[in-house]
Amino acid sequence: MVVAAAHGRLVEWLEEADVVRRGAEGAVPMTSVDPLTPLHRVAAPARPDPVAELLTAAEQLGTAVRVCELAVQHARTREQFGQPIGAFQAVKHLCAQMLVRAEVARAAVYAAAVTADRADIAAARLLADEAAERGARDCLQVHGGMGFTWDSEVHLHLKRAWVRAQRGGSTAEREELLAADLVA
Question: I need a labelling partner for 5 at 20 to 30 A (CA). Which of 22, 37, 67, 169 fits?
Fold first, then answer.
């Protein structure tokens, strides 16, 4: 049988969406575009794997750092009204906020890697997801219309950050798991 991703979430790789499994427990048949390919939906695990969570946090951290670098580089070179756009206060603030979020996420990811504590990893993941998603959006803002074109990699970072943020459940679900860990 072929198993589709749980809850209809976006998937990054085809093999993630179309995994061939034998006798998957709790698999529910679903309609396929191809009637010759039997599809089944399985539930996501109750708790995400801590190693996968930490690796995703590290990927998101890499995105946050890269988009910050792209925004600063563009702000230094792009000129409007006879001066670099980085001289404008609004652009300075966007770049500064991107850097702060990236550095806070970096500290959290590094600490989680050292402690290997489930709550530390969950917190690092939440901070890294926010740094990547908001950083990519802010970088797109700094780039303006250029950020949406194929000449720029900014829109790709944003789309990848969105997809990675859905790994292992939504942000709200991960926040609830973290809260449960902290209360317990």
Answer: 67
